[in-house]
């Protein structure tokens, strides 16, 4: 019996030596007690003092390969072991020796990653390590031990709406997850309530909305732990109501105008988010800002004036109105039936002719510079008998229905004084001749009468 036991012992020793293990590692040693933890405020606990050397155990490099709000992936260096061997993944919430507990046993020596689903936004630290064991005659023998890594789970994405108007909402969000290893980034899924809006590969999205529509936006961060597995975490929700549709309401002081006439434009807005600003395109290439705005056209035609209202979110709404622009009236120089002058008291006819390019509606006339005895009439032709002599500059102002007017060139006009229906000098000459003739006739008559009275008395002889 003793010979058989000795044979078994020799076989065990030979097998262990083939594994490359020294005699001190022929059995799984108990975990050595760790030195006391050193904790500083604001930092994670770390082991104080040098690591316990285990010359017979290989070091396994361990790292965090991926970390997101709901999943963790750690990977380590590969160690070869035969059937019956395994990797053992352990963790601890304190990092103290003896506090590590197994969470997974992996029997494939080429499977060197472990991932687990965790609670979103977990902030507590977790310590991780991996040990490798070989099976020797059914006995688990420690052949590798990793370093420790400490993890915390990042918070879920934080969503906010940077701006929203009646048709579009701009969404942005944070995401500090470190993807990698068995966890790779998939995409962001954007929702309005339970309605899926679309995918995003970056941390922003523009959602199409409707005016006065209640919304509740959220973002789901989608990972891939394997090609067929998705892990997700959902952000906070942002709720609100989209504003009323922005509308511009232009008005104009007149819908018809002559060239050079000033037109006043006004605009106000409803909906959107105040305050508002206003810009104008007057239809002839000219522009303006504000309300009210004024403009005078220099060309004729139907002008489409556009008011563009912009709210505080830079949403723009535009509306049009039309102004018909006509030419100013034209008028000729007045003419007189009496030529350049007339005798006072004589009837004269004055007339002008307005151009065919005048503005809409009937024209009105005002006669200027008339002599006394003549008064203005709202007509292109007037007749009157001037009573006062003098020189006059007669003109006519023609006004169309738009209020645009044109004044004619003046007519130089003279009213000559008259006497006895003749020019004054001639009348006075006639009067003088009449008076002289009357004087002569009177003298002759007086002389005849006098001679008769002085006839001598005849004395009879």
Please explain how this structure is put together.
Strands 3, 6, 7, 9, 10 and 11 form a six-stranded mixed sheet that branches. Strands 14, 15, 17, 18 and 19 form a five-stranded antiparallel sheet that branches. The protein has helices spanning 2-18, 424-453; strands at residues 37-38, 46-47, 58-60, 62-68, 71-76, 86-92, 101-106, 113-117, 126-136, 139-146, 149-151, 158-164, 168-174, 184-192, 195-200, 204-208, 214-226, 229-234, 238-241, 247-252, 256-258, 262-270, 277-281, 287-289, 293-296, 301-310, 316-326, 335-336, 341-343, 348-351, 364-368, 381-384, 390-399, 405-407, 411-416, 418-419, 422-423. It is rod-shaped. 10% of the residues lie in helices and 45% in strands. With 461 residues, the protein is mainly beta.
What is the gist of this entry?
With about 450 residues, the chain is mostly beta strands. It has 2 helices and 37 strands. It has helices at about 1-20, 425-455, and strands at about 35-40, 45, 60, 60-70, 70-75, 85-90, 100-105, 115, 125-135, 140-145, 150, 160-165, 170-175, 185-190, 195-200, 205-210, 215-225, 230-235, 240, 245-250, 255-260, 260-270, 275-280, 285-290, 295, 300-310, 315-325, 335, 340-345, 350, 365-370, 380-385, 390-400, 405, 410-415, 420, 420-425.
Give a topology summary:
Elements: H1 2-18, E1 37-38, E2 46-47, E3 58-60, E4 62-68, E5 71-76, E6 86-92, E7 101-106, E8 113-117, E9 126-136, E10 139-146, E11 149-151, E12 158-164, E13 168-174, E14 184-192, E15 195-200, E16 204-208, E17 214-226, E18 229-234, E19 238-241, E20 247-252, E21 256-258, E22 262-270, E23 277-281, E24 287-289, E25 293-296, E26 301-310, E27 316-326, E28 335-336, E29 341-343, E30 348-351, E31 364-368, E32 381-384, E33 390-399, E34 405-407, E35 411-416, E36 418-419, E37 422-423, H2 424-453
Parallel strand pairs: 3-10, 21-27, 29-35
Antiparallel strand pairs: 1-2, 4-5, 5-8, 6-7, 6-9, 9-10, 9-11, 12-13, 13-16, 14-15, 14-17, 17-18, 17-19, 20-22, 22-25, 23-24, 23-26, 26-27, 28-30, 30-32, 31-33, 33-34, 33-35, 36-37
